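ingest -> validate -> predict -> emit
validate: passed (alphabet ok, no gaps, 71 aa)
predict: started
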Amino acid sequence: MNVFACYDNGSILNKNVLALDPVSIINSFKSGVKNIAAISLETGYITEASVPYSITNAFKNLAAIGMEVSY
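emit:
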């Protein structure tokens, strides 16, 4: 089946608008995950997306303290 156009809420969209490749879908998903992680870090609410960043930030803080006290 070939789709030539799509009707949505009074608008007719041609097939060029509807064409999505897997790379653009993956990039959009990655962008959403980054936004979720950023919001989680700012609000202090731990999510699966923010755990790696939280661990990295904790290590950076410990390293900075260690360097400050010459340990």
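Strands lie at 5-8, 11-14.
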